[in-house]
Design goal:
The chain contains 14 helices and 2 strands; from the N terminus they run ααααααααααααααββ. By secondary structure, it is an all-alpha fold. It has 2 domains: about 140 residues, Cyclin-like (Cyclin A, domain 1), CATH 1.10.472.10; about 160 residues. The chain is globular, with a radius of gyration of 21 Å. The termini are far apart.
């Protein structure tokens, strides 16, 4: 007599090991501390500093797409870039000549390809950097051009500078894998709308300083929260434990992260006719979980299984996304990047 095998028992999520959590906490700052970044202390306005950060990360994304790098690698590079700027200024002063934000971005991407084991040949990386910086995707670049050697030497020189600024701390857990593990835990990884909304949240967050304000796990949980709100699905509790406690995350931190993203993207018109994932997302940090309209306080039904789409290397999913033009500065004759 044949018996039906018992369904596999879900392993409850575990918090990060104490050593890993402590290492990540060293790179988490308050919003007031972000306003004390070296570039701002040296006289640049916070808006200007954020704009340069955004340009740098957009440079990483454009080069990464040209090299067909996965989003996890680009996310890691964005984290390296933002962490570097919490230790170093972009403004020149007597006795100090800063790296250009594109130089930092290119070097951060170079390091990230090693850390995430998605290494590309130096020639391929340099060619992509030159083409993105010059906004010419078809520009002929080879070892005979000045731009090639300037970019190559800059990346190799800046690698040690970046490593020292990061204290050789290369351990970064991209939130994409954590978010997908959360989807699988609740058996909703085939819910395309939910998955795409959460993915868009994470991709949009790369262009912000969210990685300096919250841990990777909190960002992953916030993306799931935002996606669930958009598609009007309620994540199930386990006994008396709400889902965020099961996932080892604080609801207040999730709310803070979502409010931060809503402040930046809520008014941005979407381009694909899809609902904006940030519209109506803002909520009181200490409010009740059901303080905004939700379909019903019950576990989510099992979604219809859909084929897995090919992951996109782009930024966002048309819901609050602002893609840049790949750069607005070029390499000068002196080997620097000029506006």
């Amino acid at each position: 007599m044949m018996t039906t095998p018992a369904p596999p028992v879900r392993e409850r999520p575990r918090p990060p090991p104490p050593a890993v959590a402590e290492a990540e906490e060293q790179w988490i700052f308050t919003e007031d501390e972000l306003l004390q970044a070296p570039t701002i202390v040296d006289g640049m306005t916070p808006d200007e500093e954020r704009a340069l950060r955004r340009k740098g990360v957009n440079f990483i994304l454009q080069v990464g797409m040209m090299l067909k790098l996965p989003q996890t690698t680009l996310s890691t590079a964005a984290v390296f870039f933002n962490r570097y700027l919490m230790r170093n200024s972009l403004k020149a002063r007597p006795g100090y000549k800063p790296l250009h934000h594109y130089q930092i971005a290119a070097t951060a991407l170079f390091l990230a390809t090693k850390v995430e084991e998605n290494v590309r040949k130096m020639k391929e990386l340099v060619v992509a950097c030159v083409r993105v910086a010059l906004k010419d995707p078809n520009k002929l670049v080879d070892e005979q051009t000045k731009d090639f050697w300037k970019w190559r030497d800059t990346i190799l020189y800046s690698e040690d500078v970046l490593l020292e600024s990061l204290c050789f701390d290369m351990n970064v857990e991209p939130p994409y894998k954590t978010m997908y593990d959360m989807l699988k835990y609740y058996n909703v990884e085939h819910n395309k709308r939910l998955r795409n909304a959460a993915w868009a949240f994470l991709s949009d967050s790369c262009l912000t300083q969210l990685c300096l304000l919250f841990t990777s796990r909190t960002i992953a949980a916030a993306s799931l929260y935002a996606g669930a709100r958009l598609v009007e699905l309620q994540l199930p509790d386990e006994g008396e434990q709400p889902w965020w406690e099961v996932q080892c995350v604080k609801l207040r931190d999730i709310r803070r992260a979502c409010n931060y993203m809503a402040d930046l993207y809520e008014s941005v018109p979407n381009k694909d006719g899809e609902p904006n994932i940030y519209a109506g997302l803002r909520s009181p940090e200490d409010g009740n979980y059901f303080d905004t309209p939700t379909p019903g306080q019950h576990p989510m039904p099992s979604p219809k299984r859909e084929p897995e789409p090919e992951p996109s290397n782009g930024v966002g999913n048309g819901n609050g996304n602002e893609n840049g033009n790949g750069g607005d500065e070029v390499m000068s004759e002196e080997g620097e990047l000029d506006g």
